[in-house]
Amino acid sequence: MADEKDKNVQHSDKAEHKDEHDHHDEEHGHGAERILVQATRLGRIVNDAPIRVELINREEIQEKAVMRPGNISMLVAETGGVRVQTTSPALGSANIRLQGLYGRYTQLLSDGLPLYGSQAPSIGLLQIPPTDLAHVEIIKGSASSLYGGAALGGVINLISRQPGDQLEGEALLNLTSRDGQDFTTYIAAPLDDRFSGSITAGAHHQSEQDFDNDGWIDMAGYERLTARPRLFFNGENGETLYATVGVMSEQRTGGTRSALTLPSGAPFAQNQDTQRVDAGLVFNRPVKDTLNLNVRASAMVQDHDHLFGTLEENDTHESYLLESSIAGYSQQTDWVVGLAFQSDTYDSDTFPAFNYQYDVPGIFSQVDYTINDTLLTSVSARLDDHSEYGTQFNPRVSLLYRPGEWTVRGSYGRGYFASSPFVEEIEEAGLSRLAPLQNLQEERAQTASIDIGYSSDSIQTSLTLFGSNVDGVTELTPFSSLNNGVLDRVRLVNALEETRIRGSELLMRYYWNDFKFTGSYLYIDSSQQSVNDIVRSEIALTPRHSAGFVAMWEQHGNGRVGFEAYYTGTQQLENNPYRDRSDAYWHLGLMAEITLGKISYFINFENLLDIRQTKEDSLLLPARGPSGRWTTDIWSRNDGFIVNAGIRVQFDGH
Length: 654
Hints:
Strand content: over 45%
Number of strands: 30
CATH architecture: Beta Barrel
CATH topology: Maltoporin, Chain A
Shape: globular
Number of helices: 5
Structural class: mainly beta
CATH class: Mainly Beta
CATH superfamily: TonB-dependent receptor, beta-barrel domain
Helix content: under 10%
Radius of gyration: 24 Å
Largest sheet: 22 strands, antiparallel, barrel
Number of domains: 1
């Protein structure tokens, strides 16, 4: 893994130049993480960063790639404090919630670029294969000081693999017991002394599944094609260039099966066709011995054709970024200052009243100061001039104290989110029943955390205490449009009272010979008060208790065997006529992979207890909800027991 990690630093915010800091990098055994993280602006080694950055390394990515090769949902879902929440039971879309905050507050990046949009729709999470990832970086808590209004709840940065000195690649074929198929490929090679390149491509299929035979599709069907070439350049004077283009096409189908109907007696198709094209580049150049110029740019255009029953909604999302910064360093101080311009546009052919264009010029800075060998601080701030929500100033202060094998981190930050029509319920049901937006304010948050960690040759453990207060959370409230007493419309409003989240995370890893054991526990105490409520209540779909355990045996070059168990506690439910609280449940899984030379064979058993929400209650509502949705929320699994198996072939230039 060391060689792989050392290759992952080339297109970060600055070169790995500071030998004077490297005495901190000689870590302990299995706990070593010598990766230069890119999610922070100054690109420190992960264990040197005052801002806590959690890593999913290449080894874990390879494990999860054989379990869910079509997308990254399982990869991030099994990280402590991270919850992948299904937002549309009809289409299977999902978003990423960090420490209990809503998924729309999480900024998803690829190599530091918003290639999936500043406000990426939930379905995007299910359209990103993990094939070409080197590692994943996660910042929890407000990162608006680093990335602006899309990162109120945190950042997930997907870091791509970089080509080595010779041709290499892999191909993976996966089949599932639910009639799903995935085929992904990755090829990388040097092109000459300065240039190298890679390309990732995939084809994915899933047939529609109706597990309880009620006529409603419980697992959406889809056909998806993806391709992403990448180009890397390393100049003679230390300059680097990274460029990429991505294309994706998907047709996703849900709703009622052919010739079958809803309780109302009518059929209801719910389909979505997506076409996305994106491009991005990152350029670094040393200006002087202690200065580095960084330029980033990206563009994304995504077309959607929705079908809700007989109503078609066609729209386009566009997102653009242009950013330039200068970073410098000395013996004790690292700093960066930069200018950025972001633009997000939504254009609906069907409902033009909801069209918007958010233009956001901004200035940002970060200063990391090494007080002594055991104490480091980081202060970052960003000033945005949002075209809709005005001036936004967001600071973050972090502190790292590391006596011996212990580390203590503290962090406080403020952030904002530019409200738009696309809360989770609207993404599911469309805009047809949403009243025109009036007097919406931005959503603002304060987040804080204290993290205590210990690492030795065989043990890693950490305890995190965190909290957040969010003002002006946008929510839907039903109303009657025709004074007939029937709630058949919704409007989007800001909550009058702040939303509060308090919680803790506990993580423990133990290494013994070829075995790795990981245990995690997450506690969340959340409360909110909706505009129509007189008392505070728990945030829906936010379990107070959740836990996980993973045991993995692995011998590099031979294979691996793993067992996992995840517990999800009861959750408060909203607008569910069948129950007010969910049941607790366990998810158990078992996987095995054997490697014979360049070929690996794998099999994975998911949801061994065959947990499925429709065994308890119907997914369908007795009548269509005010927002237009026909389903309850997903609070459990909804796929039941599933097996997938396949083959992975690796090749190189030998």
